[in-house]
Write a structure and sequence with these properties.
The protein is α/β, with parallel strands linked by helices. It has a single domain, classed as HUPs (Rossmann fold, 3-Layer(aba) Sandwich), CATH 3.40.50. It has 8 helices and 5 strands; from the N terminus they run E-H-E-H-E-H-H-E-H-H-E-H-H. The chain has a 5-stranded parallel β-sheet with strand order 3-2-1-4-5, with helices on both faces. The longest helix has 16 residues. The radius of gyration is 17 Å and the shape is globular.
Amino acid sequence: MKKAVCLLSGGLDSSTCLAWARRGGYACYALSFDYGQRHKIELEAAAKVAACLRAERHIVAKIALDQFGGSALTSDIAVPKARSLEEMGHGIPITYVPARNTIFLSFALAWAEVLESSDVFIGVNALDYSGYPDCRPEFIEAFERMANLATKAGVEGRTQLRIHTPLIRLTKAQIVALARDLNVPFALTFSCYDPAPDGRACGQCDACLLRRKGFEEAGIEDR
């Protein structure tokens, strides 16, 4: 089996992406991040999903992005609630974490080189998403070009890294339907940006609302 590094937050999209890679015959090495996020409960979800989907290994890398702040996910800034889809579609929200996917993909690139893997999977989406610039196809394409210039394995011609984004052009409803077909354990995934102390999802942040929209449009119960 070919080895692949799969970025795994514990949310619906990254879990679906991991399941996609597993169905594609890859031996998956799941990579999550404790980056100072306020919703650390997602790491518990990531561990459960990685085990359920039989990842070869699951690593949680620690990065103190909360030292920089600048985001409602890493600083004492209120997470926006009850925004309309129209509001979500304009501008870059305060939940954007500066350079997050660039940093995450750099870690994935390093682990892939150690594993002698040519494949990295990330569950970014450019349709039903919250306006993050590092979820766009042009960003992924640029990073992939850079990655093949930046590693010993790439320069020596031993690997040609490919960043797989199977969800990038899907609606949230299409992702939900795909997740069902891939037997993603919905009940183990976690999407909320601002959970209660007991771990319950708030139901009103952008991530919760987009998740609800996807399940409703797909006609599937969110367990």
